[in-house]
Amino acid sequence: MSDRTADDPETYDAVVVGAGFSGLYMLHRLLRSGYRVRVLEAGSGVGGTWHHNRYPGARCDIESMDYSYSFDEELQQEWQWSERYAAQPELLRYLNHVADRHDLRPHIDLDTRVVSAGFDDAADGWTVRTDTGRALRARWCLMATGCLSVAQVPAIAGLDRFTGQWLHTGAWPKEGVSFEGKRVGVIGTGSSGTQLIPIVAEQAEHLHVFQRTANFTMPAQNRPMTEAESAVWKSEYPQRRAHARTSGFGHNQPQNDRRHADMTPAERLAELESRWAAGGLHMMRAFADVMTDAEANEATAEFLRGKIREVVHDPEVAELLSPRGLPFGTKRLCSGTGYYETFNRPDVTLVDVRSAPVQEITATGLRTTTAEYELDVIVFATGFDAMTGSLSRIDVRGEGGKTLAEAWAAGPRTYLGLGVSGFPNLFLLTGPGSPSVFSNMVNSAEQHVEWVADLLDHAHHERIGRIEATADAEAAWTTHLADVAGRTLYSRARNSWFHGANVPGKPQVFMPYLGGVGEYRRRADEIARQDYAGFQLTSR
Ligand code: N01
């Protein structure tokens, strides 16, 4: 159903930026509708997050049976996940399989970074420029650039002097890294650090973990996926996928609908113990009000501190590992295997860099305000310029040459996390303002892709050439986003990447939508039914 001439080989109906979960499915959907599409991917392979995050221990903390595409019934029946939580190599194999299965590769340019995207008012289309010197023109520009794709290395003085090896978890070398016999320092104890640390500890001569803020880490309770378990999932996929789509977080973990105050002490303890045993992110759903009621939240936090004390032999180390002063879950809950146990090893030292901050990297290690550490390898598990980082690195210019950086100077503003006023025909997939990082990303990616694909099909049939979020709709959505977040405990803990606090100078705004996947989908579908209310649709 191409609406463009094929005369110019660099003219397309749509350009998609990124070939991760969102970008691959977006490409597939548009090809199926007959569009001319090009995908531009900066990495040397498809897979997005799972292409870049190859650090030892990297695995998903949403169950594989949920964290997978639902659009291809045969695929979801055929594919056999080997573990409850798939590790990075298996996820990358899966995404490569999808690319081959749907013959997507001929439409993807790898090793091609988009440097700018400019809207042409007269042509109602975008010109997308790459670091390889190409200029692609397309009516629709679809940003599938990921929420956690720009590695954030802190600006610590002296890194250029370090004579050892340093790495960031989010840009891990394909050939891998050996820690055998090495003195290793890991900076950062978020989701990446807590997965990596136990594995590095097994290999290194000595591991120093530099912790600034303790976070809660649940035991993943990972295990091999049995055929019987997989068969049950597969037979129940219609109900389970439907449930995920209308749930709070886009997956099938059970939610306790009872409030903490409505349960007896024995019931509360039984609930918390069963969530600990279930592992992973189950604790986030222990009580209906765990993220809105301070008492429910603190009860959960104290239960977890008790578990840390049970596992970690040295009471001082246990206390240092116990999060204090920030509500449970307001920094992303981590999920790992053997994390707390690792600190019982004689060859692992926990260093508190809150009380004695890192001052500089030296030629041979790292110096805090109170001590010096000799290191052969430094691993930065220091997170990402999240949600806006990949977009802010592209020079995006909308109507009248206005830049996205100007439009978002005080933080990202979107309508539904999909459209931006002043930037017609540009769509963000799982961008800021949508549930994205507060959900099973694959579920949210599918919902965005399908919603955008339906809109583009509608535009084609109705001969619409320009679609733009109105300023009013964007303002109302931005207010709604802040209102929803304001009703939760997240508003009390601003020191997280959810707020942009981990990147110096970044505007501090709570970026994802907390209203839930089901509610978000209901609203988006209702807007579509109302002829895409809040978007201005202009005929060609
Ligand atoms: O990054 P993070 P991440 N000196 O930002 C510390 C997803 N994910 O890569 O809290 C010392 O969470 C920082 O300390 P503080 C998931 O959504 C999922 O681990 O700022 N420390 C913190 O401890 C996750 O939330 C999976 O005080 C410094 C750490 O570095 C998101 O990705 C796996 C520092 C950064 O933690 C990001 O996770 C991996 C400094 N100068 C990731 N700068 C799974 O599915 C930063 N830190 C399991």
UniProtKB/TrEMBL annotation:
Cofactor dependency: FAD
Protein's name in the database: NAD(P)/FAD-dependent oxidoreductase
Family: Belongs to the FAD-binding monooxygenase family.
Cross-referenced Gene3D superfamilies: FAD/NAD(P)-binding domain
A Pfam family of this chain: FMO-like
Keyword Flavoprotein: yes
Keyword terms: FAD, Flavoprotein, Monooxygenase, NADP, Oxidoreductase
